[in-house]
Design a protein that fits this description.
Blueprint (H helix, E strand, L loop, with lengths): L1 H19 L4 E6 L6 E9 L5 E8 L24 E9 L1 E11 L4 E10 L4 E8 L2 E9 L2
Antiparallel strand pairs: 1-2, 1-8, 2-3, 3-4, 4-5, 5-6, 6-7, 7-8
């Protein structure tokens, strides 16, 4: 009886940490050049079950508030509210999500890998073109 109760308490204690160890939520990214907080991105599941991420708040205004460099359906759309992460799904392990990510500054789309870090308080976001990649670590806002 005591073992079952203890196991139940341990399971309850670990559930919130596991639930937060996903990319879903509100994240703050930083500018690679200045180290300054740049935007907040909200990642949520869409109707198809994949994760999508939209710019929820612009913290550093850019010279061009539109995605003028985009070449797909996002071309000319405001960066605020722009979907920059598409089709992210768990891949292989619980800790890896893969999809596509857009850099709205240059309009390029990259293969994406996201891995929650520090029990979901941070998110490693890596964009790939072939063997080349760029990595950022985003911080959870909520």
């Amino acid at each position: 009886m005591k073992c079952a109760t203890l196991a139940g308490l341990i399971a309850l204690g670990t559930t919130p940490a596991f639930a937060q160890a996903t990319p879903e939520g509100l994240w703050r990214n930083v500018d690679d050049k200045t180290g300054q907080a740049k935007a907040e991105i909200r990642i949520a599941a869409n109707a198809g079950g994949a994760l999508a991420g939209r710019i929820d708040q612009v913290l550093v205004p850019s010279d061009d508030p539109l995605c003028s460099a985009c070449t797909d359906d996002r071309q000319g759309q405001p960066k605020l509210g722009l979907e920059i992460i598409r089709g992210a799904r768990q891949s292989g392990t619980e800790a890896l999500w893969e999809g596509r990510i857009l850099d709205p500054e240059n309009g390029k789309e990259y293969a994406l890998r996201m891995v929650p870090l520090e029990a979901g308080r941070k998110l490693q976001v890596r964009g790939y073109i072939g063997p080349f990649y760029r990595t950022q670590v985003w911080t959870r806002v909520d």
